């Protein structure tokens, strides 16, 4: 859609630029017949060139042409914005799928561990060495963990469907690409960005496009204002006429320059004044949209920087929590195997360890999304000079 809008804007630019040049047309006609009752059969050929040029006294056509150029630049910027948006969305869904698979592996590991505990407790309960209530609790925990693993698998499959829609690739190709090993180091860049130059915001494609819309609206105000002033046009023609009748041939060549015409608007019931007022209102609206775009750009950059700072500040604590709960689970498991801890304590330690590991994975995904948000908020490498 963005590419189609560029082509439409370029066509409009060509049309607007043509108004600055003379318009030249050619005509050729032939006729054979008897034009009068007493005249012999005659063949007549005529051809001519006609030219017309509007002298741009007050710059009306030049203003329209400048507006068309600005419109092309704006549509080119919006194409880049669309490309960056798709790239950012693909990156987010890609990492969400990777995160989902790691969460699934964690859930499956937990489900397998709980199933093993339930199996052993079931054997002990049948032998009278364990309480039936503990066996029932172990079976319930195993079933709950298995259900959560299946729900996680569904979420991963939905991410694949989203990638198919975003990339327009066959699902088999997407699954093949996603089956490659994943590098965790690519997930968490731990360096920080404290500030982004103001020029970066000015180079965002949506901000640049909004600024070009202001230029277009300003040019339309000038074009509407120019319609209130006189217009000067110059015409000219060159023609040739040849007639052959009864064995005789006659020719007539003509040329003319003019008329030089001046069109002065006198009274139109306020139409031109109303057109100027409407154009000025559209200009005011474009300026408001531009200011809102700048404020939104600043907000998105600052939010991305805050998210990066927050994930960086929480990283060490989350890592320590995950490591501590993993050690606690290992200790409770050892005590449980020795008969020194209850099944309730073991299940509670498992839940805490699983939650801590899930929080660790979620923080990595959050940090990745903050980097993508900063990439998108800072324009995704857009260069306004590429639109000139």
- Share of helix among residues? 55-70%
Number of helices: 8
Coarse structural class? alpha+beta
Number of strands: 4
Rg over alpha carbons: 38 Å
Order of helices and strands: HEEHHHHHEEHH
* Largest β-sheet summary: 4 strands, antiparallel
Instruction: Output the strand order for the largest sheet.
Output: 1-2-3-4
Could you tell me the strand content as a percent range?
5-15%
Mean pLDDT figure = 84
Q: Unreliable segments (pLDDT under 50, ≥5 consecutive)?
A: none
Terminus-to-terminus distance: 21 Å
Shape: elongated
SSE diagram, text form:
Layout: H1 2-18, E1 23-33, E2 42-55, H2 60-126, H3 132-167, H4 171-178, H5 198-202, H6 205-226, E3 231-245, E4 248-263, H7 271-337, H8 343-377
Antiparallel strand pairs: 1-2, 2-3, 3-4
Helix pairs in contact: 1-2, 2-3, 2-6, 2-8, 6-7, 7-8
Question: What's the short story on this structure?
Answer:
With 388 residues, the chain is of the alpha+beta class. The chain is built from eight helices and four strands; from the N terminus they run H-E-E-H-H-H-H-H-E-E-H-H.
């Amino acid at each position: 859609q963005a590419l189609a809008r560029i082509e439409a804007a370029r066509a409009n630019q060509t049309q607007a630029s043509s108004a600055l040049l003379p318009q030249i047309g050619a005509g050729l006609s032939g006729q054979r017949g008897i034009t009068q009752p007493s005249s012999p059969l005659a063949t007549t050929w005529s051809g001519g060139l006609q030219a017309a040029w509007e002298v741009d006294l007050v710059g009306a056509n030049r203003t329209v042409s400048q507006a068309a150029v600005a419109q092309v630049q704006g549509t080119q910027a919006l194409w880049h914005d669309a490309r960056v948006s798709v790239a950012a969305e693909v990156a987010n869904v890609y990492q969400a799928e990777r995160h989902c698979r790691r969460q699934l592996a964690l859930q499956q590991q937990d489900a397998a561990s709980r199933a093993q505990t339930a199996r052993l407790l079931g054997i002990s309960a049948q032998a009278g060495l364990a309480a039936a209530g503990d066996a029932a609790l172990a079976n319930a925990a195993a079933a709950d963990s298995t259900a959560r693993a299946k729900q996680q698998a569904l979420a991963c499959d939905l991410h694949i469907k989203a990638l198919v829609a975003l990339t327009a690739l066959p699902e088999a190709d997407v699954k093949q690409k996603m089956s490659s090993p994943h590098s965790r180091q690519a997930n968490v860049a731990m360096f920080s960005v404290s500030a982004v130059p103001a020029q970066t915001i000015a180079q965002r494609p949506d901000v640049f496009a909004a600024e070009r819309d202001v230029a277009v609206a300003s040019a339309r105000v000038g074009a509407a204002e120019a319609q209130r002033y006189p217009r000067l046009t110059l015409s000219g023609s060159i023609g040739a006429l040849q007639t052959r009748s009864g064995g005789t041939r006659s020719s007539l060549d003509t040329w003319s320059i003019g008329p030089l015409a001046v069109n002065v608007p006198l009274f139109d019931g306020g139409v031109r004044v109303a057109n100027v007022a409407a154009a000025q209102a559209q200009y005011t609206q474009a300026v408001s949209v531009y200011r809102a775009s700048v404020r939104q750009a600043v907000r998105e950059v600052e939010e991305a920087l805050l998210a990066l700072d927050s994930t960086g500040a929480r990283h060490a604590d989350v890592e320590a929590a995950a490591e501590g709960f993993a050690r606690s689970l290992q200790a409770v498991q050892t005590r449980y195997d020795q008969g020194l801890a209850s099944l309730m304590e073991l299940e509670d330690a498992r839940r805490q360890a699983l939650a801590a590991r899930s929080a660790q994975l979620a923080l990595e995904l959050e940090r990745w999304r903050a980097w993508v948000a900063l990439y998108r908020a800072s324009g995704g490498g857009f260069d306004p000079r590429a639109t000139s």
